[in-house]
């Protein structure tokens, strides 16, 4: 079949984006607007329900279809309720973007100083929450003959030097494991590893002149800091027919920070 730009269309598809609602110019918001822009109906999920509804309203104002849902991805009943809301609004789900995570909220501590309650909460959101969403939505994708799962990992997992990076490298493991397990169901599972992205949370973590900011400026091959919109092209590739032969992969969108020396 000849390649055309139609291969990036998601017309008639339904996407769930978690973590898309709390802070203004978040990555999840850019993902929701990007998916809607190529035709997908979007379920915007966040623990901040008002924020999720606000992003859904932005999608609708831009001419798309969306609903906002309050969800705690660590709670199976809450995720099941989001799945039910998706079914009622749009009839099913084809795409899951596991974007919700704890990041800016984290206390920065050495590994051996981390409070075990904090460690457990971090894994519950960043890893188990993604698994709970996969368990809820993969069966709905099977019903529709296949689907796409995209897990949001991080350049901070290469190598992981803090608990956050450890959760994200574990999420890479969930990605490759599920890619193998769900391939027979025509469900592709991939990951995006962003670099320092200037969402509100990302800006707080990479203040100009901070040691982290100086480090990425010294090591990235091109523009060290990106905008949430810089990640959308990779997402659309992984969610659309254009990316149908890709599974189990991590796409690094980070200005070449990953090839640091
Ligand atoms: N900004 C960066 O530089 C950067 C870099 C690499 C990876 N990432 C990843 O990108 C994603 C989005 O980051 P962002 O910069 O937009 O940050 P963000 O803090 O704005 O987004 C995270 C979202 O997850 C939501 N969330 C937290 N716990 C939840 C729960 N239990 N249930 C449902 N939602 C919950 C938060 O409310 C928030 O809206 C995260 O996975 C983050 O780890 C960000």
Q: Any overview of this molecule?
A:
The protein is of the alpha/beta class and 261 residues long. The protein has a single domain (9-254), classed as NAD(P)-binding Rossmann-like Domain (Rossmann fold, 3-Layer(aba) Sandwich), CATH 3.40.50.720. Helix content is 42%, strand content 16%. The strands form two sheets. The protein has a seven-stranded parallel β-sheet, with helices on both faces. Strands 7-8 form a two-stranded parallel ribbon. Helix 1 links the parallel strand 1 (14-18) and strand 2 (41-46). Helix 4 runs parallel beside helix 5. The chain binds nicotinamide-adenine-dinucleotide. Nicotinamide-adenine-dinucleotide (NAD) is lined by residues 18-19, 21-23, 26-28, 46-48, 71-74, 99-104, 125, 129, 152, 154, 194, 196-197, 199, 201-202.
Which keywords apply here?
two-stranded parallel sheet; binds nicotinamide-adenine-dinucleotide; 7-stranded parallel beta sheet; 9 strands; 42% helix; alpha/beta; 261 residues; globular; Rossmann fold
Strand residues, percent: 15-25%
Q: Measured on Cα atoms, how large is the radius of gyration?
A: 17 Å
CATH class: Alpha Beta
Q: State the low-pLDDT regions, or none.
A: none
Q: What is the structural class?
A: alpha/beta
Span of the ends, CA to CA: 41 Å
Give the fraction of residues assigned to helices: 40-55%
Described by strand count, sense and barrel closure, the largest sheet is: 7 strands, parallel
CATH architecture: 3-Layer(aba) Sandwich
Provide the domain count: 1
> What's the tally of helices?
8
Query: What's the count of strands?
Result: 9
Nearest-integer average pLDDT: 96
State the fourth-level CATH superfamily: NAD(P)-binding Rossmann-like Domain
CATH-defined fold name: Rossmann fold
Query: What is the multimeric organization of the chains shown?
Result: single chain
List the secondary-structure elements in sequence, H or E.
EHEHEHEHEHEEHHEHE
Bound molecules: nicotinamide-adenine-dinucleotide
Numbering strands along the chain, what is their spatial order in the largest sheet? Answer: 3-2-1-4-5-6-9
